[in-house]
Amino acid sequence: MKQKILVTGGTGYIGSHTVVELQQAGFEVVIIDNLSNSNIEVLDGIEKISGIRPEFVEGDASDFKTVRNLFETHPGIKGIINFAASKAVGESVEKPLLYYRNNLVTLINLLELMPEFGVKGIVFSSSCTVYGEPDMNPIDETAPIKTATSPYGNTKQISEEIITDFVHSGAPIKSIILRYFNPVGAHPSALIGELPNGVPNNLIPYLTQTAAGIREKLTVFGNDYNTPDGSCIRDFIDVVDLAKAHVIAMIRMLDNEDSEPIEIFNLGTGRGLSVLELIDSFQRSTGVKVPYVIGKRREGDIEKIWAEPTKANTVLGWKAEVPIDDTMRNAWAWQCRLADKK
Ligand code: NAD
Ligand code: UFG
Question: Which atom of ligand 2 lies at the shortest distance from residue 152's CA?
Answer without folding.
Answer: 33
